[in-house]
Design brief:
This protein is of the alpha+beta class. Helix content is about 15%, strand content about 35%. Strands 4, 5, 6, 7, 8, 9, 12, 14, 15 and 17 form a ten-stranded antiparallel sheet that branches. It is globular and about 85 Å long. This is Glycoside hydrolase.
Length: about 725
Amino acid sequence: MKQKLFLISLLFTAYQCLYAQTSNLWIVLNPNAGDTAQVNEDIIINNGSIIQNYSSGNINCSQTRNNNDLIYSITFNGSDFNKDGNNDLVSFDLSVKGYTGAMYNYSADENASSVSNYGTQSDVTIINNTWGVFGDFDVDPGESLVYEIKNFMVNGLSSDFTHESDFTLVDLIETNGGRDHTMIFGLGNNLESFEMDSNKSFSPSGINNSFSVTGAGSPTTVTREFAITSLTFNIKINGPNNTVWDVTDYSTFEKGPTLYHDYPAQTENKTTFPSFSWNKIPRWVAARNAQAFSDQQIKDIADNFQLIMLEKANAQGFTYIEDGIENAATRIKALNPNLTTLFYYNTYINYGGYRANIEYDQNAAAWSTYENGEIYLFKDLYYWYNQDVEGMRDWWIDTCLEMANLDVIDGVFVDKVVNPDVNGDVFLGDGTTPSNNYTRMLSDLYNQLPPNKLLVGNTLRNERAGASRGLMDIMDGSYMERWDFPSAGQTNADAIAVSIQLMREALQKGKMINFQTSPGSATEEEKPTDDDELLAYTKEHVYFPLAIFLIIAEENAYFSYTTGVNALSSSSDLWNTSFIDEFHYYLGAPLGDPIKNGYLYERSFENLDVSVNLETKETVFNWVDKTIDPTTLSINNDINFNNPIDLYPNPIDNTFSLSQKIKSATIFNTLGQKIMSFSENKNEYDISNLKNGTFIIKVLFENNKKQSFRFVKK
């Protein structure tokens, strides 16, 4: 065992040296920053972990004039880039220049405009917290504003750290009404141009550390003018190759959500958390059936999953859903007492079929949300709860508690969880008063749950302000769907990268993650209607979402992959995908944290090397052994990593030795490609021609037994 742990340590160390870390600062600057008229929000810096404004004490900004130049000198002391435990001081200047008399040609065609020169330098004016040129508060035709980031420094970092910057967003307002405000970005030919009819934010492309905009008037009406109210720019700080990706740092991603506060830790170790093992892919399932689950379905659930969320519309042949869920949970627990069961309930939508709705229907006029003087019905069918009504909140909580008090129910799953307020805060500044009555309802449920019962929500979302991280303070875990859904300015790859971070962060804090996915996350192909084709389609597209899960997987992470949740015999939903072989291969514990290089992620487990490209959705799965042994859930004894022989030295320079005689040995790379082989026993084996890296050697002994294990070539 010591030898194996030593090998894992060496392997992880080798990986650590491969990739550099990139940290980001997103700066939002308004014209009044550094002036006596400044308010705290005139300069905001997001370092990927938390958003800070001037009031944080970590930001300083001064505004000075040098002839016609306007200079913003900014310092920031809120990030530790080299991870030495001390924040590093960032300083840089933003120079703003104004010009009049530009020579320009505007074209409505894409990238067909030009600015041959800016003309004569003039004053930059700030009026009503907007940037303008030459005495007024706007940009007239032929006037230009030029922004440039200069004099960037980080005290305390070695020269190995480099930086790059770019302007990502400009906020524009029209200053004399109307429409057809046109402008050109940059200097030269084939420039990007833009036309706006109202106040707008715009993301110019191909911009680096300097940015300019020239007014081009209006092609169809009288002279039109505009002003700039805010700029957002990004500074990337690139570490040397001996820095390690910090999986708790949002700033490793190009674009992230706005994050307002530290992530809450799990403070209570509840025994109702699902059982967990690295023997094979840890899995959970959501399922519903208006009729009773068959005995085979109950057995499949008990045998293949560690957690089931008993969905709505789960009457199981009973009159009311509560009775159906209790019956299904009782049957499942009879076969697998350790399986965790969750009762589903919605935080906003009053779905039908529950016994509790008898009381709700009697109070619907007072407990529902109104719109235009009439009760709002979701999808024109279902009441929409009004959480501001105390009686409704008490009824909703009592409905959840009634089910959570059952011995066969381990907790409550709450759906349609929304952000509590614009900042994503559950509590006000005192840390105890709920920010509104919605969070009061959830917080009261969490506090009133019986001991050891779970509260899990459809909570974390990349596209929300704060990603709803604050709500995790009153939840034991999060369902994770829409993990590839982008927010403004993100690509799908950006969204997935941030979702990976959200899930890994939650798991490191002791929370549970129920990862939910389907074949649709891997392909845009239309889902087949033919049963055989649907089966093949489902098998074929499991690899991309499974690779994402394996990148985030830690204890308390569970994977669900379905085409739907309806378990009726007449339904075509594949709610139980246990027919997929990969779910039954031995996995083994991870050999380290995931490795991130841009959008490429890699990770190694005892029996698997996996990599995934978030942009192309390409994956590589290299299983060392694919033996399926559902009885013992262990890898075939002929091939494992509990080595009866020694390979030494390890890591290897040029040659290695084996402590036993062999018939043959074959070396593979981590993609499963055969690299070289030896067909006879030797005292030393020469691998000097191999490039540095991690490899797998498969050995055949004289007694025809086999052995496989890893080594590092340095």
